[in-house]
# Entry
Amino acid sequence: MKRLFPILIIVLLLFQIPVSGVSAHAEEDVYAVADKRDVWFYQEPDESKGLFILPYTYYVKVLSEGDPFCRVEYQDSADGYKPLSGYCLREQLHFVDFTPVRPFLKKRITLTYSIDSGNGIGDGSFDSMERTVSYYGNFSSGTAPYYYVYADGKFDYVPATEPVTYDLNTDYIVPAGTDPDPDVPVQKNGINGLEIALVCLLCAAAVIVAFFVIRGKKAPISDRNGDEL
# Structure
């Protein structure tokens, strides 16, 4: 019986190989694109808690799926930005099955502040000041437009002086009637047929080895009185 233990361990390890592959795939990040111009990023799962409108054609990372709200993350820690966790309505998102090359908009904008000293002293060298901030999205309060921005570890709203322009993503758009490229392998979830066949063959081989091990074991020799020697 002791000879069967290594064989059983090998069989169990063989079953774990494809299962581990599926788990690794399941842990990949999931992204969804704002393919409309009015997709809100919410601070809480509440439509009255909108922080800003996501930049059109850019993505959020989906942390957990839900209905009606999904918990998401926008931006990363590169280029003067900070990841921001929040919520989006599921029905407003377009889920994709790939990792986008340019998921988040990197747009730095310069704010200009002017003051009127009015004292008639000096040449006005400091009557105008500029500050660069990281743009996250648009917001409106009544008819007044604002930007939601980040700088120096803080998020805040600033008046929108002019529209923010940027390049649009098109990687999520599949032309109508277009078939997938046959030369590009399609990644699928789960275990494919080749993996199943390989596991079956290895299991069959393990059973055959176990059979010959058991059959080849000699029976104990007994003396005439029936006692084992």
Remarks:
- The chain has two helices and eleven strands.
- The first strand starts at residue 30 and ends at 33.
